[in-house]
Amino acid sequence: MLEVSSIPELRAWTAGQRRAGRRIGFVPTMGFLHEGHLALVDEARRLSDAVVMSIFVNPLQFAPAEDLARYPRDLPRDRALAASRGVALLFTPDVATMYPPGAETVVVPGPAAARWEGAVRPGHFAGVLTVVAKLLNLVQPDVAVFGRKDIQQAALIRRMLRDLDWPVELAVAPTVREPDGLALSSRNSYLDPAARTRALALSRALAAAHAAYVAGERSAAAIERVVCDVIEVSGGLAADYIAVVDPDRLDPLNVVSDDTIVAVAARVGQTRLIDNIILGVGV
Length: 283
Known about the structure:
CATH topology of the largest domain: Rossmann fold
Structural class: alpha/beta
Distance between the termini: 33 Å
Helix content: 25-40%
């Protein structure tokens, strides 16, 4: 695996891959890799000939009171994991490389970014779309792979690619979970054993929603109530939102069907976790 941190080095490598007729896959991350990230690499390898992974903790997507400073980092471990999974090029830029002095242009998302995660974290998705746009421009991949756990992010990136006629295939890989159902997340490292046990209510609530749907429930309000009840009974979680929405614009629904998204965000102590389910698909 080759590791580069400068834009000229990255562009030279990708240009060589294209001259050789190789299809480039791309997996952007903020590091502290876990099996969820590595499953994205597996999918990118399946869809391409050579995989680029970026590791960059993007300051634009953190609000002043959020956890930028303490966001977990372990680049030596990440290098070893990326290499072991078959990443061909690891791109590790610093902040000055991604946002040189004087940089001021940002991607402004549409109305779908103002609800759910966007309502709780104002400005978050402008930061996400800006860094994704920059990385896609730098790597110029044939396919980019994102995880379903960040489902609103994936929907907004899909719309950006469509609206701006970006010639990149978007693949969204299923959420990877621990055997007990907890969705893998770098922020899980913040959880002590008791908090981790409480966090399991998120996946239990979503599984209950899917079971209700399979049993014939079609009311969005009823599906939301199922999720809310499981979270409330569990104790120790504070829900930011429970969203029952369509998969394109993330609009609230009255009646659910296959492909309806049920998404939840909750705080376990000081740690904020997100998870979701697609009705008809399951966790």
